[in-house]
Structure formats: C-alpha cells, structure tokens
Amino acid sequence: MGTGLKIGDLEARVPVIQGGMGVGISLSRLAGSVAANGGIGIISTAQIGWREPDFYQNPFEANYRAMKKELAAAREIANGGIVGFNIMVATQRYEEYVKTAVEAGADVIISGAGLPVDLPKYTEGSNVKIAPVVSSLKSYTVLCRMWERKYKRYPDFVVIEGPKAGGHLGFSAEELDTLTPESYDQVILSIISKNKEYEEKAGRDIPVIVAGGIFDGEDMKHALSLGADGVQVATRFVTTEECDAAPAYKEAYIKAKKEDICIVKSPVGMPGRAIHNVFIDKAKKEKCRIKHCYHCITTCDPAKIPYCITQALVNAAEGNLDEALLFCGENAYRCDKIEKVKDIMEEFARAAQKR
Description:
Layout: E1 5-7, E2 10-12, E3 16-18, H1 28-36, E4 40-44, H2 59-78, E5 82-86, H3 94-104, E6 108-111, H4 119-123, E7 129-134, H5 137-151, E8 158-161, E9 167-168, H6 173-178, H7 181-202, E10 208-211, H8 217-225, E11 230-233, H9 235-238, H10 247-255, E12 261-265, E13 271-275, H11 278-285, H12 309-318, H13 341-353
Parallel strand pairs: 3-11, 4-5, 5-6, 6-7, 7-8, 8-10, 10-11
Antiparallel strand pairs: 1-2, 9-13, 12-13
Helix pairs in contact: 1-2, 2-3, 5-7, 8-13
C-alpha cells in the first residue's frame, strides 16, 4: 500500500486534505501551499468575496468572482497540486456556488452542513471529484441511497467529521456531551464497513477521510489504523505563515488555553466550537442590531438572530477580535507557534510512511 491518497485519477503524495475554513481563513495562499507540499488544498466559499468592492450590494456576484480569482491564485502556488472548494449545503444559492466551482476548474468539491443530495446533478458532465461530509452511519447511508436512486452515482471520497471539529458541528449539544473518542471510533469503523458495499457497487475505491481533531502525526496514525485512507486537518494550519487569516486571528489561537475553547449556539441554529472571548459574552447578553443581510445561510432568520454570523466571521478574518466569532477545533490550544505548511506536511508524510 502506498502512502499517498488516490481519488480516481487524482493522486496526493501525502494523504492530507486541508479543511475548508470560512470566512477568509482558507483561501488561495493556504490551499495552494498545502497542494504544493503534496496534500489537497481546500478553499472555503463561505462569503469568500467579502473583500470585493461590491460585496455589500451584490454578495453572490462578489462571491462567485472571488471563487474564480482564489482558485486561479491557488493554482499559481500549487505547482500542479490538487486544489478545490468546500461548499456548505446550507449556503443560499448552493447550486450556483457548485456550478461556479465546476466552471472555475476545481479538482474536488467537499460539501457538508447538510446532505448534498443534488451535488451529482450540479457537477454532471465534469471531472470534478465530489465528497459529502457526514458525521454518522445513518447520514452516509441515506445520502448514498439517494445518489444511487436519483443519479446512479456514488461519492468519489467521503469525509467523516467527528465531534472535535471546529466551526459548525453536525451534532446536537447532547451528542457533544456524551460522545467519547472510543464511541466515535466505532462510528468511523461502521462507516468504513458500509463503504465497502458502495465500493463494490461503484466498482472502484471510495477513499474514507477522517476529520475533526486531527492535529498531528499521532492522530493521523490512529485514523489510518482504523482503516481510513487519509485525514482532513484544519486547525493546525491556522497558525502557519501561509494561512490567509489576519495575524491577530492566528495570535488568538496561540494564546488560547484549553479552557478557553467552548461550544456556542450559532445564529444559524447549529452548535459550533469557538475560542471564548468578549464577543461571545456580549452576544449572550444583548442582541446586536442587524444592519444588513448578506444572504449567507438558508437557516438564518435575520429577525430572530442575536448577531450576524457573516459580520462576526468577517471581523475574525480581519483581526477585529473584540467583535469576532473565532471558530476553532478542539485542539486549538495546542497551537503554540507560527509554523510553515511545509514542515507540517513533512510531519504528516512521515506518519503516513509508518502505517
């Protein structure tokens, strides 16, 4: 068995996918650098065009334009490596985002925050590799049955995202309280087992990628020992020179202690993991006035939400931390210095060789 990751005709030298982080945290520089160092670089489409001059008036057009710019810029850095997008199913006009990614020439599209039921329809006729993000055996089975019935299609790979992930989580608050690493390993094993059936039906491999809480080579070795083909890593890449986030955002990770990392109720109705700060305290006490809707998530009701998540995440990307929601994974407190993508990728490459 090789140490890389094969997805159809794509091959990454190191079995690491860099997780998509929006708003503005994983853009061209980070994704391109991961791809150049043998992994798969992922750009988050979440409000990707916030720096475009017409974002306030035309958020969709600004985002589509920025997707094309960021992918082209990532390709310049990637040196022939694999780059693609993470597109949330809960995004308003999801179909247009997917079609824009295909037009831009993405190698892969990873899609979670809901089940990407019609992703095969929106990518039909292209060579883009598509993957759902799932958190349970049930969600994976339901999705595969739907793709099979509607499109006679199976995933090109699947990302299993566990409860230690950052940002919005595919678990209820109760599940987050009760799931243990051991019980979640059983979930991963059950999906890997079921996936073999779909591989037989598809007549090809469907690589399984484990995500959520993968921080170092040891975490990767554990995931691979369960039978995974690769891992998805996000938090570890935030504190790199190449990450697209503002220096203050990276500094917040480096300063964070274990007890600073908390579960918050996002305005879009899902639990999320973030670094505790003054903004979180303020949001609990008082409702922000929503001055403008940026049309981000389908589950958001501007009349009822305590604050605008787009604005809070843009503030984070720009380093305005006292007005920001600082999404992070459970291991953010383990980030203690600014690193280089190359060094992190070499660490994971060594771990992959020892499997």
